[in-house]
User: Which sequence fits this backbone?
């Protein structure tokens, strides 16, 4: 079984490629919960929903988040009566937040709720929140500390980032189904998806048992670069790197993950950086990593799995 660590849009796209390449039972997608928050009395899990909608083929391809064929009557009616509309919840999407909130209140775990939704949406692979207990990303900036969605959506990632905190991570354990996978030796390899290393992957690696499993080097770890030609495909990864004084390139990301990763899938546009990555001791595959269509996601997934097999036999 392959364990794929995924955050938002980039993670969901590679997860959908891996889901096409692997048989049911061969893939578990571990998803960031650092973006989760309570809003309008509802429990919102944006990255879980992005992965779930993408794997079910009902995602909004323009925004990357939310559902396709969405309508916005709720938001319009909320605006009319002076409600909070900075975070947009579509009518269909709302059903998931309302039902998740109801089940959490009656005591179901986030992992059980996610499994149940995924089964109803005919998703054949496992989708696992990294933890059932809350982990909340807080962003330190020159303008003060923001909760994740406040920084990301309300402030449009404009404040200059100086650091991060993952509240709850020190106490959080892997969710029960993830713990079972880590303990049973079912995992043959780990894929770090091209999700934001600081905002999406770091909150997952802050869960000690998951990090320890990856660090134990029992299985090969392959990462797909979220930075192509000095920029992020989507989102603020390159901006954050520059603000933290790091080089916004695949090389900068490789230095950030260091020995946690064994091999890199990087974009052909960055071919000049391949020798520098290899000098760091990493195996490298060059391919077109822009996953703008399902067949492109499948190609990146196949390259990733084939690189993983090469690393395994080293
Ligand atoms: N991102 C935005 O930039 N603006 C929004 O209004 C917004 C609403 C939203 C609703 C449901 C959901 O699951 C995700 C939503 N996102 C929105 C994305 C969310 O902020 C994610 O945390 C980021 O995409 C990071 O992965």
Assistant:
């Amino acid at each position: 079984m392959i364990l794929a660590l995924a955050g938002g849009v980039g993670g969901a796209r590679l997860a959908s490629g891996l889901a096409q390449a692997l048989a049911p039972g061969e893939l578990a997608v571990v998803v960031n919960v650092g973006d989760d928050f309570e809003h309008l009395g509802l429990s919102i899990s944006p990255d879980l929903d992005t992965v779930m909608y993408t794997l079910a083929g009902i995602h909004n391809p323009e925004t990357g988040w939310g559902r396709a064929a969405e309508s916005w009557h709720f938001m319009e009616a909320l605006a009319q009566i002076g409600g909070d509309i900075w975070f947009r919840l579509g009518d269909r999407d709302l059903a998931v937040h309302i039902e998740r909130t109801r089940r959490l209140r009656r005591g179901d775990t986030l992992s059980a709720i996610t499994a149940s939704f995924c089964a109803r949406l005919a998703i054949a692979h496992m989708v696992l929140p990294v933890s059932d207990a809350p982990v909340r990303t807080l962003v330190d900036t020159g303008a003060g500390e923001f909760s994740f969605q406040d920084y990301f959506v309300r402030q449009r990632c404009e404040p200059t980032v100086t650091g991060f905190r993952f509240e709850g991570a020190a106490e959080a354990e892997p969710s029960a189904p993830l713990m079972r996978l880590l303990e049973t030796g079912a995992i043959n390899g780990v894929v770090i998806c091209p999700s934001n290393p600081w905002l999406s992957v770091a909150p997952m690696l802050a869960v000690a048992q998951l990090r320890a499993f990856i660090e134990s080097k029992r299985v090969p770890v392959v990462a797909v670069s979220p930075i192509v030609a000095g920029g992020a495909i989507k989102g603020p990864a390159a901006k954050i790197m520059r603000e933290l004084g790091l080089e916004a390139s695949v090389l900068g990301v490789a230095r950030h993950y260091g020995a946690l990763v064994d091999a890199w899938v990087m974009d052909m546009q960055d071919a000049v950086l391949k020798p520098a990555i290899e000098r760091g001791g990493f195996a490298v595959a060059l391919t077109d990593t822009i996953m703008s269509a399902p067949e492109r996601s499948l190609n990146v997934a196949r390259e990733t799995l084939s690189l993983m097999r090469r690393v395994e036999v080293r």
